[in-house]
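Internal tracking record. Fields below are filled automatically when a chain is submitted to the structure queue. Please do not edit lines marked as system-generated. If the sequence contains nonstandard residues, flag them in the REMARKS field before resubmitting.
Queue: standard
Priority: normal
Entity type: single polypeptide chain
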Amino acid sequence: MANTTTQILVLLRETCDPQPPVRLTADGYGVRDRGLRRIANPADLCALETALQLVDNNDGTVTAVAIGPNRLDDHLHLALSMGANRALRVWNSAFQGGDATSEARLVEQVVNILKPDLFFTGSGLLDRGGDPVPALAAANLGIPYVTSALKVECKDDEVEVLRKSDRGGRQRIKTTMPCTLLFEAGCCEPRYPDQDALIRSLDMEIEVWNEAELGLPLSVLGASGALLGKDKCSFPRVNPQRTVTPDANLPAFDRILALLSGGLKPREGKIHAVSTEQTVDMLFNIFEAEGMIDGSEM
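SYSTEM-GENERATED OUTPUT FOLLOWS
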């Protein structure tokens, strides 16, 4: 990597483990916090690992940034223990209730202030899928961005990115710094810090910025700056199950088997070597027996 002073900014986001069952809030506009297991977004950790690999043998720096309350300090301490040089958290209670546009303003302003050569984060979120915030911020900044990145190589002020394209293909794209790269989850294996590194990271400082450091009015942040409305959410309706009613004339044992089988009858495969006309007649007989067609239609 020719540019030995490359500055890389990595956005870490918090996601919820999709395994535990969730409950909706009383108003139906969100998910209850109680019982949720919060983790760092896996794709963002892959982006952090890629950034650390780029500067491992060079004189670059990696800054990890998170937007949210103080519980995100755990993710920033993890980034510091992995090798990040600086950790920054952006938050104010007035930032709550924002949408993608207001959050993109926060990211845009952080990038404007720090002016990194490269801005890394994940392509999507584990719990919500796609996140338009990084792309919106890059568009507002007027810098190029590449999605679904798998690998990156830097030479002078040029960046060559290997990205995932349609149908499992691979595509190489060249762009210039500064730029935004969104990495796929699983593109690399994030390093696991040892116990000493984790303990040292607890004593490292995490900077906290609010609207004063950002230089933005509260009117364009949080719920006040949101442009997208909210809608109620609900759990998907369970498909009704067909109730099986066994023939009352069957013995008790056979009726129990019919209930346990859900009405499915055991069948044996058969191979018939017949003419085309006979094949058509046999298919119609099967369709009629299954109730798919009426015998009068034949």
